[in-house]
Design brief:
Blueprint (H helix, E strand, L loop, with lengths): L4 E6 L4 H12 L4 E8 L7 E4 L2 E7 L10 E4 L3 H13 L3 E4 L15 H4 L9 E3 L3 H17 L1 E9 L6 H16 L31 H14 L5 E5 L9 E9 L5 H10 L3 E3 L11 H4 L5 E8 L8 E8 L3 H13 L2
Parallel strand pairs: 1-2, 1-5, 2-4, 5-6, 6-7, 8-9, 11-12
Antiparallel strand pairs: 3-4, 8-10, 10-13, 12-13
Bound molecules: NADPH dihydro-nicotinamide-adenine-dinucleotide phosphate and aspartyl phosphate (PHD).
The site of NADPH dihydro-nicotinamide-adenine-dinucleotide phosphate has 29 residues, from helix 1, helix 2, helix 5 and helix 9.
Length: about 325
Amino acid sequence: MANGFNVAVAGATGAVGVEMVKTLEKRNFPVKNLKLLASARSAGKTMKFKGEDVVIEEMTHDSFKGVDIALFSAGGDISREYRPFVVESGAVMIDNSSAFRMDDDVPLVVPEVNAEDIKLHKGVIANPNCTTAIMLVAVAPLHRAKGLRRIVAATYQAASGAGAKGMHELIVQAREVLDGKAVNPVAFAHQIAFNLIPHIDAFKENGYTKEELKMLNESRKMLHLPELLVSCTCVRIPVLRAHSEALNLEFENDITPEEARAIIEAAPGVQLVDDPADKRYPMPLDATEKYDVLCGRIRQDISRNDKRGLDIFVSGDQVLKGAALNAVQIAELL
Ligand SMILES: NC(=O)C1=CN([C@@H]2O[C@H](COP(=O)(O)OP(=O)(O)OC[C@H]3O[C@@H](n4cnc5c(N)ncnc54)[C@H](OP(=O)(O)O)[C@@H]3O)[C@@H](O)[C@H]2O)C=CC1
Ligand SMILES: N[C@@H](CC(=O)OP(=O)(O)O)C(=O)O
């Protein structure tokens, strides 16, 4: 579009929405007009975009008239309610929630992994689960070179995965614990400060959580690998922002750590940080506010008698690459 796009951000005041607005600005996305939408609680407040105050509006079914691209980040129920109104208005909906990710008519996209799927959209494109997005930015180039068969993962997920309220709870609770006060967990099932919680999203009958099953199902869909094997344990840790993951990978073909490092170095969206002798490896503090996922601790899996197994460690800012940045990158490719 010659003069740029009319863009709406639904959930503009949230952990992801705020970063969407910043990312549109930082990447100089061609915005003709920006509409910031949130609940009635935020209506009338302002947010800065390119130095200007933009007034936040209460989102209604009529909010999308004249909008070209709607970046949605206000929760799955809201995405479900608004989808028909967005699509009817002619806007493309790029949705961060889990509402439509596994629908056959909705491409699920990380641009570095499966940008070609964007063109299949029928009005809605889904952004994957943040943990899955970070993993696949590093794993997809290895898969393209060597054929991925199986992933065994343990995650270390930041409080920001539970939104603005999750980050707030960690900060407040850390102070309460240090001051010897009683804590009152709300965003998390238990005290998160000075603790970790191996429970993210609801448990299913097989003992896995929904978060863990997203790693399986969403990876299969984006890599177009219906037989891919994935087992995962997702853990919430008292880090403010940026998720990390320990990944054990099995391939169809031999792969050495040297080959893997060369592949990662050449891949888009991922930065090799792998010099243990110099104490350089991915860490969430280093990944925070970075667009690239950090990948390191690359080593041959010594539990096998062949060279088809690797262990790697990744850290990525899940509010950015797992959500806001990914959505803006998709918009750039429309
Ligand atoms: N946090 C993360 O890392 C990731 C989040 N996501 C997904 O993104 C979505 C948002 O997450 P997050 O930013 O963390 O959540 P937050 O709780 O931080 O923000 C929620 C946003 O939704 C808005 N909202 C709530 N109710 C309404 C309503 N009735 N009408 C309009 N807007 C409303 C809020 O507005 P107000 O301030 O006015 O209440 C706020 O802007 C979720 O679906 C989440 O699963 C996906 C990947 C990663
Ligand atoms: N579940 C992620 C964040 C998230 O919102 O995921 P999803 O979009 O799949 O519900 C976390 O808590 O770290």
